[in-house]
Specification:
The complex is a heterodimer of chains A (150) and B (102). Chain A has two domains: 104 residues, no CATH class; 30 residues, no CATH class. Chain A is 65% helix and 8% strand. Chain A has seven helices and two strands; from the N terminus they run αααββαααα. Chain A starts with 8 loop residues before the first helix and ends with a helix. The mean pLDDT of chain A is 88. In chain B, β5 and β6 form a beta hairpin. Chain B is built from one helix and six strands, in the order ββαββββ. A six-stranded antiparallel β-barrel of chain B has the order 1-2-3-6-5-4. With 102 residues, chain B is mainly beta. Chain B starts with 5 loop residues before the first strand and ends with a strand. Chain B has a single domain, classed as Thrombin, subunit H. Classes of the chains: A mainly alpha (150), B mainly beta (102). At the A-B interface, α5 and α6 of A face β2 and β3 of B.
Chain lengths: 150, 102
Amino acid sequence: MYEIQIKNLAEIQKLFEQYPRESAVHFGEAISQTLITAQRYAIQGAPRDTGKLMASWRLNVGIMRGELVNTTSYAYWVAVGRRPGSWPPMKEITKWANRKGIPPFLVARKIKEKGTEPNPFFDNAVKLAEVYSEVAFKTAMEKTIKSIVK
Amino acid sequence: MIGSFLTTEFSTQRLQQTANKSKPVAYITSGVGHLRQLDDRTSEINSIQLGLGFKLTVSGDVDIVATDKVTIAGNIYEVRGVKSENFGSLDYKEIIMVKKIM
């Protein structure tokens, strides 16, 4: 699980406690925009084969909270790679190898011997989204203060 | 039960003549291979009963020849044919086997 660090979190929390309705609207928007940005970067960095990894996302935004989940079972293994030593699941390897025209046994053996390189596509996306979140949350704070002053 | 698309451990026995009989004796080799059911067309061409034909892929250095007996998860298979293949610099063997009904 990755978390986006918000720099002025204490101020946001204080504002939310005092003006929950106004804050929820604008910060909800900031959370949503940040997660959509993270998703966009993750899609750009994800490996392309069938496109399943790039297309399988669940985005939930609630009151002052949000989560972005990749729903494929193998996203974690793509991100962290695989250590050598054990045989990969042959069923999935077979589908991939047949698409590429490589004997599945050779692919599985290579993975067993060498493992797989990690592709930190989600980690990178979160880092980039963190930069974007600073702007989004600052804007949300300004909008909230404006709506309170009105 | 052995299903298709399985990486599985195997061991082999080779026929040896003792007196006037040939018997599968010493275990020759063991290793890991990719076992799957033989497709209908290849089964038909080789006159193998539907469902009893299997294909095993193993490393190129595995010592295995036709008539060897291969044991996988307690099941015995008889080797019908062995074909040496390569993919780039990687050697491997494709083996057609028939499962023995015990």
